[in-house]
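Query structure, 112 tokens:
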């Protein structure tokens, strides 16, 4: 199984203004998060829409929230609700509005 290439990672980071899409940090190390895990959804492993820039701390928080490694985009949306409701990140709601249509589109791609 192959995830994103280095070029794809650069493209995703550029699209996301090279900052964490949850906390807006541009100082911490940024990583590319798969909305739909590459192990459970290998057909989406290198689809650019499936990638999202997160800092290492926010990325770890998500994987602590959803530790089994088989996450779907729906799990990420639930995580965003949790982050907003616990007042950790006020921009979680804005990110959810942006990500929800992408999750629906990726789910549709899985059906084709």
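Result returned for the query:
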């Amino acid at each position: 199984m192959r995830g994103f290439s280095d070029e794809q990672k650069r493209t995703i980071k550029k699209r996301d203004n090279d900052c964490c899409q949850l906390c807006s940090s541009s100082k911490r190390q940024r990583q590319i998060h798969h909305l739909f895990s590459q192990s459970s959804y290998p057909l989406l492993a290198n689809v650019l829409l499936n990638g999202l820039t997160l800092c290492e701390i926010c990325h770890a928080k998500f994987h602590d929230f959803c530790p089994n490694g088989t996450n779907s985009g729906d799990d990420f949306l639930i995580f965003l609700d949790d982050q907003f409701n616990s007042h950790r990140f006020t921009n979680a709601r804005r990110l959810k509005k942006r990500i929800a249509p992408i999750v629906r589109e990726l789910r549709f791609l899985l059906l084709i």
